Amino acid sequence: MALAESQNPLRVHRIPQSRYIDAVRWLSPVSPSDRFAAIAYFDADTNSPSIEIAYVDPNPQSSSPTLTPQSSWTSPSRISSLKTAHSTPQPLLAAATFSGSLHILASDLINGGVMESEATVSELGFHSGPVSAVDLREGGTECVSVGEDGRVNLVSFVGDSSKLSYRRIFDANGLVGYTAVKWASPSEFATGGYGFGIQWWDQRTAGGPVLQFKGNWCQGKTSGIVHSIDIHPSRKHTCLAGGSSGTVFAWDRRAAQQPIVLSGAGTGEAPNSLLSESEVWEVQYDRYTRRSNISNISSTRILPVMICSEDGILAVIEQGEEPLELLAEPCAINSFDIDQQNPSNVICSLEWESLAILTRS
């Protein structure tokens, strides 16, 4: 495995926190020099969950960058999934909880990051148990939620109402559980769950998923779980997934049931790079590309991928290349986010109650 420092300058700043961090997301900046982050905290001493908007010191040369809290929102339950829609000056946040509720929040970054609850859905029947994952549709007023209860809900928020409206797209009655979800278009999204399975949904088609990928390829190991999904806006036919046993793979919907294994055990026919042996908690396409590599990315090649794992690895995987390790921590890296406006900036949460901010150049 290659180390990032050996190829490109990499600045890493670790910022201790006083609470456990469940998730972290960049917010769209209102100016090139400003950086804001949304952080989901859990205080185990007081059993109090919250989401905080923090201003991130924009000085990349600072030896000890700081986070300045701007506003805070107290959640009724611990945050199970946090997603943002990249809009300005009031980016939206979708916060799902372990008690089965969903909350839409808005943060006014011009006026100090003031955060307000826009709408909530918490009634019985929305989800039975925790909401596993939620995703906001960019530029729209909808989000989709999934749970291990097998329910897939489409949530709409319009006007000034404090209550969200939702409709159930599918209910597997607990026979199938969903653990990840990602929008692909205004009408399509993908879900992931047990057995390394992925489902493709189209709202224009009634009933269940229109296409499914059955993960029975990993040396007979069908008990794995897909923890995270990403779909690149310019290549919506390819779904990226990360899950158990260090498995990272891509599913090209044009290639039926043949996965493109980027890391993990693979099909058993040939060894694959084993970047991590534990759970891959999150995957994202890495839009940061060095100039020397731009011409080498073909239309059929899987774009670079960033992952974080339970065994403390933050790394970039490129198909057919040696993985590039950015961080190797003595604790789990639970979540990360790449700044869409400036992909050289990455923020991630460490299990030992701290944040890490990376700047690539």
UniProtKB/TrEMBL annotation:
Biased composition (Low complexity): 58-77
Designated name of the protein: Nuclear pore complex protein NUP43
Top-level taxon of the source organism: Eukaryota
Ranges where the record places region Disordered: 57-83
GO cellular component terms listed in the entry, alphabetical order: nuclear pore outer ring
Organism: Gossypium gossypioides (Mexican cotton)
Subcellular location: Nucleus
Keywords: Nucleus, Repeat, WD repeat
Principal location: nucleus
Keyword presence, ATP-binding: no
Spans traversing the lipid bilayer: none
